[in-house]
Amino acid sequence: MYGQVRNDVREILKKLCAYKNIGIVEGIVCSDHVHLCVSIPPKQSVSEFVGYLKRKSALMIFDKHPQFGSKWSRAFWARGYYVSTVGNITEEAIKEYIKFLDAQ
């Protein structure tokens, strides 16, 4: 994701997180994936939140950039995702890692 698409993805993810009162601690939109460190309330299901984020953001991206969808496939994100909790390493280490990726 480059240029305007990258900016739109960033803004869409911020907006969707704000709708659900999810705090974005750190994040980066890379060329083919996204890294997010978010603060999710304990009662919020991580899988439901990620599903919501991927579904809604794909629809919003297709609205702004219809060239990414075809009449046969409306998939924007990959089917899977990786989630880990802050525990084995510190939140500061995760933030530094994301900042390091942004500098690349």
Automatic annotation (TrEMBL):
InterPro entries: Transposase_17, Transposase_17_sf. This is Transposase IS200-like domain-containing protein. SMART domains: Y1_Tnp. NCBIfam families: transpos_IS200. Residues 1-101 form the Transposase IS200-like domain.
